[in-house]
Design brief:
With 120 residues, this protein is mainly α. 37% of the residues lie in helices and 8% in strands. The chain is globular.
Length: 120
Amino acid sequence: MTVYINSKTPSLRVSFNYQVLRFVHKMVYLPHLVPIIFHTYFTLSTSIHSYSTRHNKLYLPHVNSPLGGRLLKFKGSQLWNRLPKYLINIKSHQLFKKRLRYYLGYNPCKTSKLCVILVI
């Protein structure tokens, strides 16, 4: 087990985006690990359009208010569609989490002046 002790933690927004993107990744690649109630939250664009698309982008639902833009269905799709292809195409959840952390700048020792790594 690795424990990071540092003087800085990721911002709340980065932590939120990280958790939302992990959830979306599970929905796209590992839907059997997510409760059934969430199975209709995200739809791949390929199942909406009759023509072939070359990416794993999600359909972005229409929202009528700023509050609608904060819903998990919308925010998750929006964040997922902004990811680079190399992240979207990772099927392993463990590898996705690792690469996503670095993409978001979530590495705890990257920005910290004081960082101690304890390996137990």
